[in-house]
Amino acid sequence: MIVLVAVALMALIASAALILLAGSVEWQKNQLQELADSSALDSALSIGVGCDTAKATAVITRVNTYLASRRPGAGALAIVNGTCATPYTGTNTFAGGLSATIHYPYRAHQQQVEVILTLALPISFGTEVGVTSTTVVRRAVAQQLAASAPTVQATTLTCASGQVNIAGSVVAQNLIVRTGTCALYAHTRFDAASGTYSDMGDVSVYTDGQVWTAPGTCVAGSNSGSSSAICADGSELTGHTAPTCGAAATSYLSAGDKAIDPNPCAAGTGPLPVAALITTLPPEPNLDATAVATLQGTGGAACTAGAVLPNIVVAGVTVGTGLAPAPVKDATGFYHLKPSCYGYLNVNAVIAPITNLQIGAESAKTTPTVTASLPAASQAGTLLVATIRSGASATAFTAPAKWVRATTKNLAGASHTEIWYYANNPGGIVSAAFAVPNASVAQISEWRNVATTTPLDASGTGTSTTVSTSTATTVANDLVITDFGPAVQSPQTYTRGAGWTSLVSDMPNGFASEYRLNLPAAIASETVTVTKGTTWSAGIAAFKPGTGAVLDPGFYYFNGSGFAGGGGICLNGATLLARDITLEFVNQAGFSSGTCAAGGGVACTGACQFGSHPCSLQACPPNLTADSPNNLTWFAAPCSLAPAAADAASCPGSAWCTAGDRSCTNRLIWAPATNTGQIAITGAAANAWLLGSISWPGTCTIVDNGTSMLAGAISCGSLSLSAVAGAGILVGSDAGISTALVEAVLIE
User: Fold this and answer.
1) Residue 666 contacts by C-beta under 8 Å, 6 or more apart in sequence?
2) Which of 134, 150, 240, 275 is most buried by its number of CB atoms within 10 A?
3) Of the candidates 711, 720, 482, 499, which has an alpha carbon nearest to the alpha carbon of residue 600?
């Protein structure tokens, strides 16, 4: 009995030891998984955009530092330099048998880091069974916040026309609608310098049964050539009840993407249901103390949705309603608006129309110089225009310093005409003497509210009774001046074109000049009538009005007050620039390139533009006349990262929005679910260069005319996107992404 009891006790003790060991291993596994998850998530928060040795070292070091704070006895971190695509590897050991291996980037995804932890556990009775230790391995892959934010989100998404290019992923609640031959293409965000990705360019549709091509074509990797299809460099997945994937013709169009992007329909796996669209809104800016502190005219209070606001008047013209002080015009002609509570803002009305200050009399006919004079000394900042006529000569006229030739036309046997201008004159000018080849006459006029730099919009010459600009004017209501010199002078009866106003009409000297201030943005033309047929030298020049307005840094709130059924921001033929701003729209207020009427009113017919072209696409500063002396204005949210290195100065960090403040950081536009206004950037001349993210629960319509872009992300209830042939990326960038609704997440 004693022997049997002893054997039984040994068996019981051995069983208990095994149970305790198994329990200890499971406990260690759980602890190790938590440590791997926590260290990966902590490190993911430090991941930025792009990848190089310094950035990889920083991410790996952050993991090591976190582990050292949780487990004592850290050794020396060793980092093996690979490439961003292969990747970099860090290793270290800690007390208690713990070792760590860190890979960054994970599978060439610059927003992901992998942490592998290995723990050696001793077996106290191992000598009895021949095994003295065991190991526990746990791993985690975490992803940075911005990588969890899709580029485009919409309850209903419509591809209306052209090829609409998105840099990043697309998520839709309902089936994506295509009209005509429209193609929607989700491209990867790929950093060629490091060989890594920040977004794989996937398309996800919550509703079952999305049709990806009907039939159509996807041209892999190209911004053009695709039609009648939904295309993706990454995966395409539709359905929450019966998930299915897109075919090879429309998905995984990038070979590099396919090699590292998990396939939701891979052999041996069942596709996961697509999650419903997140309808939660980011924090409201008007409830954020930092945003409210920027408001002017409110006494420190937040804005009120139902407030009736007073008129804002500029030069006798009502330009909107609000509590802000009246806009102030800077030295370059831009009006600056201040953060405040507004009802609406009609940017076109901010720009005072061009008006005439004075017209000089026709000069005497003289040579070798002809002097044109004004009745009184000129005012500073105005535009002076001189029209001159001489007999035919191939010798060009010569002007005083600062004068610029707009047109010149010489016709042998007829006459020689030229138009000159002096932009942003210093004031005090009463005359200008021009060197001429033979006896000439001249006349000078002065104009207010003309663009102070590069005012010439279009010009042209002619040899008949009709003279036209060679190109269309870019804006409506230019100052358009003509200069006619007929060969047959007196006897001659001359009748100017309908709608034109005379500056001078002198047929004995064969000299006539007219102007208009009310032409649309188009080819400008005048046709005159004469009683005797003749040949001509004629010129025409169009000068732009002052360019527009600038929103100074801070928070802007629009409630539609003062504009029945609409309100908000409307361009209506103007340019609006901004930097370091967050906008909120409530009630029926909208954001339109057209008018302030409900739904954006009529499409823009002038040079309607939100923002200025970035330095990466043209010589900087891009807006030479804006926001003096900085000249760096886009239409930008509070940000610290520009889409390209050349544009870094446009995002120096916010002057008011604390970094990480979720109500304003990278938040360009916010609207509540109750807002009934619309975003409408439409019209043949509408352009938008926007930097930041948009949250709009209602209707959004954006037409890309080839030069527009939203560098950030957009979320709308109903979103319609269109593009002309040759358009590039319409929405998407590593910059401008608001992470207000996302967190660092565990991928594996």
Assistant:
1) 637, 638, 639, 692, 693, 712, 736, 737, 738, 739
2) 150
3) 720
- The b/e string for 92-128 (b: 16+ C-beta within 10 A; e otherwise) is bbbeeebbbbbbbbbbbbbbbbbbbbbbeeebeeeee
CA–CA gap between residue 685 and residue 705 (Å, rounded): 7
Q: From CA 608, how far away is CA 574, in angstroms rounded?
A: 5
Alpha-carbon gap, residue 677 to 96, rounded angstroms: 62
Q: Are 347 and 571 in contact (CB under 8 A)?
A: yes
Non-local (6+) Cβ contacts of 682 within 8 A are: 593, 594, 600, 603, 604, 701, 702, 703
> What is d(CA 196, CA 84) in angstroms, rounded to the nearest whole number?
7
Give the end-to-end CA distance of the chain in Å, rounded to a whole number.
55
DSSP 208: S
Separation CA 259–CA 642 (nearest Å): 29
Pairwise pLDDT comparison (164 vs 127), residue with the higher score = 164
How do residues 350-378 score in pLDDT, each as one tens digit? Answer: 776 788 999 999 999 999 999 999 999 99
Residue identified by tokens 């806009």 is 327
CB burial readout 202-231, b (16+ within 10 A) else e: bbbbbbeebebbeebebbebebbebbbbbb
The Cα-based distances of 128 to 9, 10, 123, 125 in angstroms read: 16, 12, 10, 6
Q: Which of 458, 505, 497, 452 is nearest to 480 (CA)?
A: 458
Between the alpha carbon of residue 233 and those of residues 248, 249, 337, 741, the distances in Å are 10, 11, 42, 25
DSSP state letters, 221-234: T-SSS-EEEEEESS
CB atoms within 10 A of CB 10: 10
Tokens of 52: 């190089």
Among 249, 261, 226, 1, residue whose Cα is nearest residue 107: 261
Q: Which secondary structure element, helix H or strand E, spans residue 693, and what is its range?
A: strand 693-704
Q: Are 230 and 213 in contact (CB under 8 A)?
A: yes
3-state secondary structure of 308: coil
Residue type, 228: S
Q: Render pLDDT for 691-717 as a digit per residue (tens, 0 to 9).
A: 999 999 999 999 998 878 999 999 999
**Residue 553 C-beta-side C-alpha neighbours within 13 Å:** 17
**645 C-beta neighbours (distance < 10 Å), count:** 8
Helix, strand, or coil (residue 390) = strand
Residue type (1 letter), 569? I
Amino acid found at 33: Q
Partnered with residue 582 across adjacent β-strands are 555
Q: Is the dihedral of CA 322, 595, 481, 474 positive or negative?
A: positive
- Burial zone of 493 (CB within 10 Å; 0-12 exposed, 13-18 middle, 19+ buried): exposed
Rounded to an integer, the average pLDDT of 420-447 is 94
Provide the token pair at 448: 């207010």
Predicted structure pTM score? 0.79
Report which of 394, 429, 428, 422 is spatially closest to residue 408, judged by C-alpha positions.
394
